[in-house]
């Protein structure tokens, strides 16, 4: 590094005397870097909360997390709080206080300082025309020298700027606000113990900010950002700090609320955490800005560009509204991404968190549930179905294993009229099975005949063996104990981020209750949890190896369909997979068990030529071929 980069780089302009008004700047604790800028850390962010909502969140999270950034605004007269949280890795003491008047803030400042804490964030805002202040203090474990100022004129700010720079401190927070006496400035300075190069620019037009951003982007990362509306137009400011560890970062500004949400999820998928957030007024309305920091190795995955290209080609060539993909290797998420739209009309981008039907991939989940219950001694694959459910008509001579492997000779669509089953709230699989079990078998068990209704009979047997309804069995034996979150029996009333399902010409498909076929096609998930389900299986975290071997071995040569899964070999490597589709949904899960590779794909339309299974196979081949 050159001598110029070893010393503090100070780049500043002086704000002109135009009238300004606006919210506080973004701010983060900044230093020490190993604590407040780790390579990876748990995080969360909250946006546009009322005071009461924020208080509830604070009580929930403050024991394990601390606030990186606090943003309070009263844009439009509504009190709202935005906050960014980071895991409190060294469990240092900290506190947050808000809605203080000038004297109250000063008293809190003195008290915290006497307690060995330093200020990392200060906010000012108007509530009912009265100025209020908020602050975040952290325990000054490193004993860094620091100071802060409020209510500075522009000239006073410049004087303090030079004074603090000479004292070896760096700014971590700057705030500009309008008062009846004119513009005032607040700033927090802290000892630059790591000798980090830094830069501060203020009063930039949008074009000037873009130019400065491009100049600094390679060697610096943004620590803070601010935008204020002035009579001369929108103005921007920021603090940049040397990006010594070279980790990736992203900053976006002037976003609508919907745009901010889209990018929040996009960057989270791509492996970034939000570190700073700002909401501000512009001539065009309220806008948002955010700074994201690389939080894992996903941004550096060698196959990222190739996989992006393949998915985009699927989107472009088929006009499918949205695609979400997850790739895991050795139980680690290597790739998460959504393409296209989860909701076209509302301009919601698809991401890995959007929940949809996994259709017949539910059968693979049913296979795992059954093997879990086998391991628990509740059921056996050789158990006769009628021994478990004596009320089942006598012609059902199949076993649990026959039903699970589609060798129970139960009719499929076309053999059994299921048209009246959708949107009927069946409390149990047994109740749904009673609707059609009088229908004759279509062959003699254990001949192979793929059947979705057969999985409803399987569910009835598992209910008898497990002493609970099939939905609860899935939740208590898979979803909850393995932290699979959204992978659960479909619940259309639940408050999840659901992808809109589409039919021909992007017409919205109606959501339908599929209670009658929970294990045959009635499970929902987002692609992240579907991928994690596969990854946990491949890692041996759900079933023993003996159970996996059984589940993934076809019982005869009639078909490669084993117990809920299709089986095969690719270039000498074992492959297991399951696809699913119905109106408005395509899903696919592909696992290379011996290689620890998992690919999950979900789409929100099946009316065109799009092919989730082929996309999953292509991505799987890319990963397999990349292995040494």
From TrEMBL:
Residues 1-27 form the signal peptide. Keywords: Hydrolase, Signal. One of its GO terms (molecular function) is hydrolase activity. InterPro entries: AmpC-like (IPR050491), Beta-lactam-related (IPR001466), Beta-lactam/transpept-like (IPR012338), PGH-like_rpt (IPR049511). The keyword Cytoplasm does not apply. Residues 308-615 form the Beta-lactamase-related domain. PANTHER family: BETA-LACTAMASE-RELATED DOMAIN-CONTAINING PROTEIN, D-ALANYL-D-ALANINE-CARBOXYPEPTIDASE/ENDOPEPTIDASE AMPH. This is Serine hydrolase.
